What does this fold into?
Amino acid sequence: MSGVLVTGGTGKTGKTLVQVLRNAGVRARVASRNPAAADPDAIRFDWSDPTTYGPALDGMDRVFLLPPVESVDPLPLVEPFLCQAQRAGIQRLVMLGSAIVLPNAPSAVEMAAQVQAQPGGVVLRASGFMQNFLRPHPLAEHIRRLGEIRTAAGDGKLGWVDARDIAASAAALLADLEVDARSDYLITGPHGMSYPQAAQIITARTGRQVRVRRITEEEQAAAHRASGMPAEFADALAAVERGIEEGREDQVSTAVLELTGRPPRAFAEFVSDHAYEWTQ
It folds into this structure.
């Protein structure tokens, strides 16, 4: 038996990746904390429960790795899984990482290095997800309810990327073990975009007036905590906006085109596809 174990298989990227792989005739095992009973190839997987690692890996030869979310230090949980994956004979392991390194997250670089040291280890460093503009993300909730984007990032730009393009890029690496791969790819959209530009595009494409409300980093951290994020992660995520404002995250790449054969979606296309999300 062979196939791809998709951790986070019910999430923004994982769900699309499973569909792409299965459409291509590749077996994809959906790993999540609450597996769907109707899917015969869904299995329970919980980063906090190492006893779920072995059954999830059994019979698989490739892995899509989504580290624990909302954690500034995921390595202690991921490291034992990497050891077990190596013992299981995994031939390609593609991790979805971030182009943005959270402040006070010292293990992020080490985790990427450990993945790249695995047989067939690849790290996809994705920029900000366009799907953050969709509910239930707090950014999207504020747009829908209040017609505003609250940000501490000023006019700073980010290479926003559609999760569908991330999934397609991962699928290109996981569907065929014969595909040559580098150990690192920066995954972005076609250009950098600020929050004021995003507001203008949503307004133009949907007719919904969206404005930008500029807030402080401290106010953003408090808003993240109020939405239910762990305090340490909320503070780190708010601090990222300082880096965006200072221009440190304004980077784009051609990796999606290189891996999939087509350019990444622009934000205007993404908005047209989801226009119903922001209209009342």
